[in-house]
TrEMBL record:
Keyword Membrane: yes
UniProt keyword annotations, A-Z: Hydrolase, Membrane, Transmembrane, Transmembrane helix
PANTHER family: STAGE II SPORULATION PROTEIN E, STAGE II SPORULATION PROTEIN E-RELATED
Protein name per Swiss-Prot or TrEMBL: PPM-type phosphatase domain-containing protein
Domain PPM-type phosphatase span(s) in chain numbering: 117-331
GO molecular function, one term: phosphatase activity
Length: 341
């Protein structure tokens, strides 16, 4: 509005720039509140009157039409600003509900799972403005040991979130009640049988830490965890007998078979969902997780996992196409006693 007024002041009544003063309240409605938008409109109208007096064209038909246009744009801008502010308040309410749901669904996991075992988690939702999705994880300390689940619900959106809530609720209860890991899987199957329909399923991996040298794992159609040894070598712990995904247990002939993963002092085990290994860059190249294993060698497990997540996002270079969850277990080396030192 200042630029229009200066040009009109210098060029006289022949410039015909007065209608451009209506741009002021129009742009104000995009970022300003009701009061400021109204003030901008009043200033635009006052500038139009002042320039009309200066150029001796006030109350001419052209000036009258310009003032009416500025007044109309100001009223429309105030209404638009009111609608924008209402939608912003509604979005803030939705975000607060989503954050509350996240705290209930994906609770913060303990930084330690038993003596000398560090835990770190990372979750990246593929849905814009969302912090939860179809991936899930949980770490529970029970009388039977530390039990862990990492899973991925087929599909996306609110339906996937609801299914994830069912799985986590059933796991948190069954992890305390069932003596064997196969019993936890059976309880999850029963819960999903009541909830899922058609050909829906949930891939998942359940783990149990009872000793200090190994982890018991049941893989239900999920990507195999990556083991990083204290010697610097890394490999994927493929199961000898992979079970069907959760929700498809009726097709299995018997119980899933658990297997052991070495977990010596200094070792690490990374559980993840397919959103990590299937993330592509602009050329279609998958994320090279094995080549990035060295990023997990940091002193703090959470900082190391955050570095891996940042590298994943740099590789993709845009929002992820699928949710990506990672859970890292680190077996800290025992500290030497004073006599050994």
């Amino acid at each position: 509005m200042a630029v229009v007024a200066l040009i009109d002041f210098g060029s006289g009544p022949t410039s015909g720039l007065l209608p451009l003063l209506a741009l002021g309240p129009a742009f104000a409605s995009v970022a300003c509140g009701l009061a400021r938008t109204t003030v901008v409109g009043v200033i635009a109208l006052a500038l139009c009157v002042a320039l009309g007096l200066y150029n001796d064209i006030l109350w001419t038909p052209r000036t009258n039409i310009t003032m009416a246009a500025i007044l109309g744009v100001t009223v429309a801008s105030v209404l638009a600003s009111a609608g924008r502010l209402r939608h912003e308040r509604q979005l803030a309410d939705v975000r607060s509900v989503a954050e509350a749901a996240q705290r209930v669904l994906l609770r913060p996991v303990p930084r330690r799972a038993g003596p000398g075992i560090g835990v770190a988690v990372s979750y990246t939702s593929a849905t814009a403005e969302a912090r939860i999705g179809g991936d899930l994880y949980e770490v529970v300390t029970t009388p039977h040991g530390v039990r862990i689940i990492v899973g991925d619900v087929q599909g996306k959106g609110l339906e996937a979130v609801e299914t994830a809530a069912v799985v986590l609720g059933a796991f948190r209860e069954a992890a305390h009640d069932e003596a064997k890991l196969q019993g936890v899987v059976a309880r999850l199957e029963n819960a999903l049988t009541r909830e899922l329909s058609g050909e829906q399923f949930v891939t998942g991996i359940l783990a149990e830490i009872t000793g200090s040298t190994s982890i018991t794992v049941i893989n239900c159609g999920h990507p195999s965890p990556m083991v990083l040894g204290a010697d610097g070598k890394h490999w994927f712990a493929d199961p000898p007998d992979e079970a069907l995904p959760l929700g498809m247990g009726s097709l299995m002939a018997g119980e899933p078979t658990p297997h052991q993963i070495p977990f010596e002092p200094g070792d690490q085990v990374l559980f993840y969902t397919d959103g990590v290994i299937e993330a592509r860059d602009g050329t279609g190249k998958f994320y090279p997780l094995p080549a990035r294993a060295h990023l997990l060698n940091g002193a703090d497990p959470q900082l190391a996992l955050d570095a891996l997540r940042a590298d994943l996002l740099r590789h993709v270079g845009r929002p992820l196409g699928d949710d990506a969850a990672m859970l890292l277990l680190r077996h800290r080396a025992a500290r030497p006693t004073s006599s050994a030192a």
